[in-house]
Design brief:
The protein is mainly alpha-helical. The protein has helices spanning about 15-25, 35-50, 75-90, 100-110, 120-135, 150-155, 175-180, 190-195, 200-230, 240-245, 250-260, 265-270, 280-285, 285-305, 335-360, 365, 385-400, 420-450, 460-470, 485-495, 500-505; strands at about 10, 30, 90-95, 135, 140, 165, 170, 315, 325. The strands form four sheets. It has a three-stranded antiparallel sheet. A two-stranded parallel sheet has the order 1-2. It has a two-stranded antiparallel sheet with strand order 3-5. Strand 1 (about 10), helix 1 (about 15-25) and strand 2 form a beta-alpha-beta unit. The two termini are about 15 Å apart. The model has no long low-confidence stretch (mean pLDDT about 95).
Length: about 500
């Protein structure tokens, strides 16, 4: 099921990306399964037993990071958990978006709900209630190397510290809790560390970015096909025999999408032999889109694991003789490297979209009036949206520099290597949004180009469905108009998946 169609998600079984987005973005109800509850309670019982037995466990009855050799008495346990959150909530600047915070809280529930963290069920249930009632902790977005700081800002709200949004209003945490009928709680052993540790924010924020990139890549097939159609390109470049001799599955699937979209197009049939060979931005769509999709699908496989993993440190192994096992599952390299690669893939799709758009607005390449407007000169038409694409692409290229190749030691060299997966996730969100805008500009040009197509030639049913939907919200350009709101409208249609829905309702599911 698609995320927007999912109304309830039960944690305990493996969680899909669509279910994850359903909660973070579309406010699907969250429940705990019996298995979820049992494994959390079993893990908590072991922590309490080992504390009574005086077993020394990192972060439970010791200090953190370079202070791990400092043993903390049982009487100071609650203070230790409170202190870690107060001292670690140091990210700064503008806050994370509501859905980024909701995604991170959900990822905390997934991470700690695997049953290897020793937290209490009632603590996790507080985050579940936050998701249900729409309480969103305030968490500044800048200044994390992979975990700790944004998560600490969020966890402070559990104790009545920090700030949170309720119905869009930013309030002191205690007042926010009161508004939704909740009371602050006192954290117990291990909980402060567990709530701040793990790959929760990189995975959560990255999952949203990946979801949007995958949708945009599929939409790019649609828009690319529509551009080729209106530019009188040849579909021969997408012949399955050609694809079969270089059998990358994503390339072959993309070519199949293009053929399917243009199968009943009178324009495509009329001009199949118009040129012997098109420019690369038209004939290489299966190759570039396919390569980008492979990168995104590889990331999806990684996220399928990470969304359902325990990235806490230490873990509480469910064996009375094992104790707490300390390692570094909190390292964010898996998601970070995948997201760095995903940024490159998304930027590659955008760079081809901009070149296709250039062919649409350049009268020497398209055969249509300059900048797709009647009376060019008096009117600028679609001249400047291509500038917008150029600016967005420059940003995307900068953001495609990998975050994960950097390492700045922290914690008095106890953490002498740092993964930087958080920054990879943060920039992936920006890249995904910019890709949607780049595609929106190309789609606007396609829409305007159809004003100049010979009236006796009909586009394919997929193109007709998209054009008809756009015509309901975007006027035909007969002269210069204020373009910004229409670019925002088209970007929203791409972001929501509405363009894909239009096509699949007309011709069936795309690959």
């Amino acid at each position: 099921m698609r995320a927007k169609d999912i109304s309830k998600v039960t944690l305990g079984a493996p969680l899909t990306l669509e279910e994850f987005v359903a909660v973070a973005r579309f406010r699907a109800e969250v429940q705990f399964s019996d298995d979820y509850r049992k494994r959390v309670e079993r893990s908590r019982q072991l922590v309490e037993q080992w504390i009574e037995e005086g077993i020394v466990m990192y972060g439970v009855n010791t200090g953190f990071g370079a202070l791990c050799t400092e043993v903390i008495s049982a009487e100071q346990t609650a203070e230790l958990q409170r202190n870690i959150l107060l001292s670690h909530a140091t990210s700064v600047g503008e806050p994370l978006s509501e859905e980024d915070v909701r995604a991170t809280m959900l990822m905390v529930l997934q991470n700690l709900g695997q049953g290897y963290s020793g937290v209490r069920l009632e603590t996790l249930d507080m985050y579940r209630k936050f998701l249900q009632v729409g309480l969103t902790p305030f968490a500044p977005r800048e200044g994390s190397v992979g975990y700790l700081s944004p998560e600490s800002h969020m966890a402070l709200v559990l104790m009545g510290e920090g700030k949170a949004y309720v119905a869009g209003e930013l309030l002191p945490a205690k007042e926010a809790l009161r508004r939704v009928g909740l009371e602050p709680i006192v954290l117990s052993a291990k909980e402060g560390l567990a709530l701040a540790s793990g790959t929760t924010s990189p995975t959560a924020i990255g999952a949203l970015a990946l979801h949007d990139m995958l949708k945009a890549a599929k939409t790019a097939d649609v828009i690319g096909a529509m551009t080729l159609e209106v530019l009188k390109g040849t579909t021969r470049a997408f012949d399955d025999r050609l694809m079969s001799v270089r059998p990358h599955p994503e390339q072959r699937q993309t070519a199949a999408n293009l053929r399917n979209i243009l199968e009943d197009s009178q324009i495509a049939k009329t001009f199949v032999d118009y040129r012997l060979q098109d420019a690369l931005s038209l004939r290489a769509i299966p190759q570039l889109h396919g390569a980008a999709k492979k990168t995104l699908y590889d990331a999806l496989q990684t996220f399928a694991i990470e969304l359902n993993a325990c990235s806490d440190n230490p873990i509480i192994w469910p064996d009375e003789d094992a104790g707490a096992i300390s390692g570094c599952n909190c390292d964010s390299s898996y998601v970070g490297i995948e997201l760095d690669s995903a940024c490159i893939a998304a930027t590659a799709i955008a760079k081809m979209s901009e070149r296709r758009n250039n062919r649409l607005i350049n009268s020497q390449l398209s055969g249509y009036p300059a900048f797709l407007i009647a009376k060019p000169g008096l009117n600028s038409g679609l001249m400047i949206p291509q500038y917008t694409q150029a600016g967005l692409l420059n940003d995307m290229k900068i953001l495609s520099h990998p975050a994960t190749v950097d390492s700045i030691p922290t914690c008095a060299d106890q953490e002498d290597y740092v993964a930087m997966g958080y920054n990879a996730a943060k920039k992936a969100r920006q890249v995904a949004e910019k890709l949607e805008y780049v595609l929106a500009v190309e789609l606007l040009s396609v829409y305007c180009a159809h004003s100049f197509v010979e009236r006796d030639l009909s586009p394919g049913s997929a193109s007709r469905a998209v054009l008809a939907r756009i015509s309901q919200v975007v006027p035909r350009l007969e002269g210069d108009i204020y373009l910004y709101p229409h670019l925002e409208t088209l970007r929203a249609m791409i972001h929501s998946g509405e363009i894909i829905d239009c096509v699949e309702e007309a011709i069936g599911a795309l690959q």
